[in-house]
Design brief:
The protein has 25 helices and 18 strands. It is of the alpha/beta class. It folds into 3 domains: about 210 residues, no CATH class; about 60 residues, no CATH class; about 400 residues, 3-Layer(aba) Sandwich (Alkaline Phosphatase, subunit A). The strands form 4 sheets. Strands 2, 3, 4, 5, 8, 9, 10, 11 and 12 form a 9-stranded mixed β-sheet that branches. Strand 15 and strand 16 form a beta hairpin. Helix 2 packs across helix 5 and helix 9 crosses helix 12. The chain is globular and about 90 Å long. The termini are far apart. The model has no long low-confidence stretch (mean pLDDT about 90).
């Protein structure tokens, strides 16, 4: 027992530190008044005390490298001839990694560099230990102190990251955090431009050093002497048992730690384990995790809703012929998807801060859809909905999947009708796999690579400012007009994104204020500039402009799918062709382009699940999702399908705070749990089950 106490002290101190930091993080997040307002007294108990259990289990897993490092320290292996043999093997291994065509090189230069650096340091330290035995103890203590510092700093850095992530998204690490690891350049640049990194990291380093010294002084007796073989075996058994227990209990606890209040469930979890599960579940199988009905029943429901004529074996026929007796109008189409433009930024939806004066004025001259919901809470979900007109599916967006090419798209239909088809983005379109997706579906991609230095007045990590992109849009559309063919140009804006920086002197809020309101106002300003330039072009009067958000500014809320975090505006502007009016029909982002095609009187073969909302057959409903919760809104009831085949329903009613807002523009609702209604449950399952099936069986190809 004495040996356990002595040689287990490094783990005990680090474990205690991990638990203290996570408790402090929970308390800090609980200081948010919006979150606290959703808590009952028992919720605090669920968050603060049981929350330590997953933290403890996760630390058992995190401690594994430290166990391996300390338990394999030995003086015997450094004596002749063993020390020389180890040195020789390390040299051979380093030479093999550097000179041979090995599997490590197949994973790219980053991994090979990490391996080479690690082996080089290991080789130098082993040579020093073998050649200078009198300094061996002191060297080990220094290395031990450095290892402690890495653990302490990593724990603090993770807590800092979790804090900002939770403040942004209202949840622990999830699929978005996994994405951030892939696009490190944009993410690191975003962090550098959004937060006071130097002061934060300076304070973090000082705290980490102080904690490291505290733990180091109380644990260096580990080396005097090193544990003998018997003690090491016992410690190895203890470590193996703790890791085995953690690996078995963590999934069980994660499955049990659910409830109606998302904040409670998320705060009671461990962020690192949530990251691990998000990484593991980036592709969610609908049939494996979600509620199902008989396939024939799902096919019959959608066939009746969409006008399909499926074959008797239900393997083909998932399309329809859209016909219009009026002549087709091949007007130009400009689709502008605006970054993070929540509906409640517009004055029509009750905003009092005059953030979007141009869009507010344009709304009164446009066909405005007032009850529109975004398909998801990421840009790729919005682009997917507008391009494929298909409901979201569990896991990653189709845009970021391997099987993302030659799909049935809006661009494909327009290309068949003689249009030039383009996607324009102010950043580098490799981000979020946009270039791969759009080029793989026949779009010409124009991004930051197409800008000359003289064309850029301002740029941040996400790309050139929207005003510069507006100028590029005009150039591109002028060139398209010169070909004599109609054009379809889809522009994705970037400026209304953290760090919310833009040129100074354009709007009332300075460009370096890093203000979300400023990002909204600047985007509105840039759109005004675009329309000012476009009005002077010969193609303007023959163009249909569509302005719609990709998603809302935030997705956080008390429930899994807070409807106010999915309500987005959409304006269709074409003076002299499409009359200005407000349309209060409930609809989804996937319905926008089929509806526009209807306004243009297009006839075409359609696989879209999105519909023309002006058709008599349309039944109002909306579909929205996170990466794992699938929502279906109809008849003022929100039905949510979740993993482990869960179904929840909520009756929605306008929140009290919306009393002064006209009914068509109310975006905030109370969501009251109710028993799932069979008809709505079957409808929700039909949409999502069939979408997953069509994609899996590759029935949604061009």
């Amino acid at each position: 027992m004495r040996a356990y106490l002595k040689y287990g002290k490094p783990f005990a101190y680090l474990c205690g530190f991990y638990l203290v930091v996570n408790t402090a993080l929970r308390l800090l997040l609980l200081a948010d008044h919006q979150m606290r307002a959703t808590f009952h007294f028992t919720d605090y108990f669920r968050v603060l005390l049981p929350g330590l259990f997953p933290n403890l289990l996760v630390f058992f897993m995190l401690a594994m490298p430290l166990w391996l490092y300390l338990l394999f320290l030995s003086d015997g292996k450094l004596k002749k001839p063993y020390g020389q043999i180890i040195l020789g093997l390390l040299i051979l291994l380093l030479g093999y990694v550097l000179l041979s065509n090995n599997i490590i090189k197949a994973y790219g230069s980053v991994l090979i560099n990490i391996v080479v650096i690690f082996l080089s340091i290991k080789l130098l330290l082993t040579a020093w230990m073998v050649g200078a035995p009198r300094y061996r103890l002191q060297t080990r203590k220094w290395l031990f102190g450095f290892t402690l510092f890495l653990y302490v700093a990593a724990i603090l850095l993770n807590a800092l990251s979790e804090y900002f992530f939770f403040k942004e998204f209202g949840v622990r690490y999830n699929f978005i955090a996994v994405d951030y690891l892939i696009y490190t350049n944009e993410v690191i640049g975003n962090i550098m431009q959004s937060y006071p990194v130097v002061p934060l990291f300076s304070v973090l380093a000082l705290v980490a050093i102080a904690i490291t010294v505290f733990i180091y002084r109380r644990t260096t007796d580990y080396f005097a002497p090193l544990p003998d073989l018997k003690t090491k075996l016992l410690l190895i058994i203890a470590a193996a048992v703790s890791i085995l227990v953690a690996s078995r209990l963590l999934p069980f606890y994660a499955g049990e730690n659910t409830g109606d209040n998302i904040y409670v469930s998320e705060l009671g979890a461990d962020g690192l384990y949530k990251f691990y599960t998000a990484f593991q579940d980036n592709g969610l199988s609908y049939t494996k995790f979600y509620p199902e009905i008989e396939q024939q029943k799902a096919v019959t429901f959608l066939a009746r809703q969409l006008g399909w004529t499926p074959s008797p074996d239900h393997q083909t026929g998932f399309e329809k012929k859209v016909t219009d007796t009026a002549g087709e109008s091949h007007k130009n189409i400009v689709l502008i998807s605006v970054e993070s433009l929540s509906a409640d930024y517009l004055a029509h939806y009750g905003n009092k801060h005059h953030l979007t004066p141009f869009l507010d004025s344009l709304a009164d001259q446009s066909l405005m859809f007032t009850r529109l919901y975004a398909a998801g809470n990421r840009t790729v979900r919005g682009l997917e909905a507008l391009t494929l007109c298909i409901p979201p599916s569990p896991g990653e967006s189709i845009i970021k999947r391997k099987d993302n090419k030659n799909k049935f798209t809006t661009g494909g239909i327009l290309r068949q009708k003689g249009y030039t088809v383009q996607f324009l983005y102010g950043g580098y379109s490799y981000f979020d796999n946009m270039q791969d997706f759009f080029e793989g579906n026949g779009y010409q991609v124009i991004d930051r690579n197409n800008f000359q230095a003289s064309e850029i007045s301002f740029a941040n990590i996400w790309g050139v400012c929207d005003e510069d992109m507006a100028g590029k849009m005009i150039q591109v559309l002028d060139k398209d007009h010169g070909t004599g063919r109609p054009f379809f140009a889809h522009w994705m804006t970037v400026s209304n994104h953290r760090p919310f920086t833009y040129p100074n002197g354009k709007i009332a809020i300075p460009g370096d204020a890093r203000s979300r309101n400023g990002g909204v106002m600047y985007t509105d300003y840039a759109l005004r500039r675009f329309f000012q330039m476009a009005r002077r072009r010969p193609w303007f009067n023959n163009t249909v402009f569509i302005i719609v958000a990709d998603h809302c500014a935030s997705s956080a809320g008390k429930v899994a799918l807070p409807l106010d975090k999915y309500r987005i505006p959409c304006l269709v502007y074409s003076p002299g062709f499409i009359p200005a009016r407000k349309v209060n029909t409930l609809m989804s982002q996937i319905d926008i382009m089929p509806t526009v095609f209807g306004l243009l009187h297009f006839s075409y073969r359609s696989k879209f699940i999105g519909e023309d909302i002006f058709k008599q057959s349309y039944r109002p409903r909306a579909l929205m999702a996170t990466y794992q919760d699938m929502g279906y809104l109809q008849d003022s009831v929100l039905t949510v399908l979740s993993p482990v085949r869960q179904i929840k329903s909520y009756r929605i009613r306008p929140a009290k705070s919306t009393a002064t807002i006209p009914g068509d523009f109310i975006s905030k609702f109370d969501e009251l749990p109710v028993s799932p209604r069979d008809s709505l449950k079957d409808a929700a399952i039909s949409y999502y089950q069939m979408t997953a099936w069509l994609l899996d069986k590759r029935k949604y190809q061009e």
